[in-house]
TrEMBL record:
This is tRNA N6-adenosine threonylcarbamoyltransferase. Its main location: cytoplasm. PANTHER family: TRNA N6-ADENOSINE THREONYLCARBAMOYLTRANSFERASE, TRNA N6-ADENOSINE THREONYLCARBAMOYLTRANSFERASE, MITOCHONDRIAL. It catalyses: L-threonylcarbamoyladenylate + adenosine(37) in tRNA = N(6)-L-threonylcarbamoyladenosine(37) in tRNA + AMP + H(+). The keyword Transferase applies. Gene3D superfamilies: 3.30.420.40. Residues 24-318 form the Gcp-like domain. Its EC number is 2.3.1.234. The gene is tsaD. The lineage of its organism: Bacteria, Pseudomonadati, Pseudomonadota, Alphaproteobacteria, Rhodospirillales.
Amino acid sequence: MIVLGIETSCDETACAIVDDARGIRANVVLSQLDEHRPYGGVVPEVAARAHLHYLDGLIRQALDEAHLDLGQVDAIAATGGPGLIGGVIVGVMTAKAMAAARGLPFVAVNHLEGHALTARLTDDVPFPYLLLLVSGGHCQLLEVEGVGRYRRLGTTIDDAVGEAFDKTAKLLGLGYPGGPLLEKAAQKATNPGRFDLPAPMKGRPDCDFSFSGLKTAVRRHVEQLGTPTEADVADLAAAFHHAVGQSLLDRCDRAIKAFKGRHPADEQGGGRHLVVAGGVAANKYLREQLAKLAAKRGLTFTAPPLALCTDNAAMIAWAGLERFRLGQTDGLDFAPRPRWPL
Ligand code: KG4
Ligand code: ZN
């Protein structure tokens, strides 16, 4: 079984081809960073036009890399939302056109489900598992009980964690995209304990997140410093990582208790994994912290390789394949969705 997937919901134009033996036959990602950098963030109109410009060529490239003809593909999947609607429309319409022309099934994939199921493409992770989904637009703790079956334990009440990384990086004059730049800056810290930032929500009895207060705390330090030096920025970046880490660990630990109560480890390997997914899962410090927590609680920690954490089409092709083999396809009347909770 071979599925071609398309991702166009934000600022990556991507096409990938996967098979049901968990093989990634092709995985082409074109980042639009250069197009958006002058604006310091993603401009929806610019993104939609770029997707339209590049997508056809990327699909051709993916088929060539996989040495496949469209006739050998069993289904076409595309991100159907949530995301910037102009881009989603480009991907969905392209996928529908291909499906209609070749008489192939079409699967509209929820972008979040793509992130949520990626660990099953790269590792042997049976349902149910606990998922921390941390990206630019989302920050959630979910029990993944099966394809299409998600129980949300917590979510952010303001900013997503990736958003906090991006905004804090901007405050520190690090540019765009903020996540990786802030991580690099923190690695240069000589006095990581110098600034004390609050770990948001720590100790609260739920599993929710909040990051806007942390960003404000960083702003206050920046204002006090006047013009922060490179060393100040590095130390603040390290303090930010520490505070985010403390918050995520506290929230996850609470979720682990709830998850274990509902899903004791079973013979098939279920109830044994803590999975992290989404762009922020590319952060090495946070991965290490989460791995330690999982070990302490007797869970296996699973994180997809870095390139499959940030937006890509392999995750969309894979989620499409998981749905397709359960018979869950969509009609060509599917309407792209700017908002689509899991
Ligand atoms: O999943 P993703 O590629 O797109 C969304 O669906 O949002 O996530 C992008 C987010 C951005 O906020 C970016 O700054 C963050 O992931 N990110 C990182 C790192 N790499 C990407 N955050 C922290 N550390 C990183 N190394
Ligand atoms: Zn994403």
